[in-house]
Amino acid sequence: MATNRTFTMIKPDAVQNGHIGNILAMITNGGFKIVSLKLTQLTVADAKAFYAVHAERPFYGELVEFMSRGPIVAAILEKDNAVEDFRTLIGATNPAEAAEGTIRKAYATSIGENAVHGSDSDENAAIEGAFHFAGREQF
What cofactor does this chain's UniProt record say it requires (predicted)? Predict the structure, then answer.
């Protein structure tokens, strides 16, 4: 059964390039309610833990380095069919393949620096949201 919450991060590239406000506007204009939000920075250990599922992949080291290099914006979003609808809103990982009107088409610069993270399942949305937000920070 689909849940109505998902997790996202505005990644260091998009934060550094000043896109926080525009990305948040796209999210809310897409019908999502922001129920948790914070500007924070992942340590190397945090990034390793968050992306542990990719530990054996050749890009893991670069991913950890990238995600810990600067601030991120973490958020829990609410909407019916949240995970699937948000994956549609962010677009393909490769911005060259992302559809017009998606966040990655507008703000990603490459496959590696693709502006935003979006949970890929209801289960991961719950895990990822809990990784970044204590229960009292979720509304």
Answer: Mg(2+)
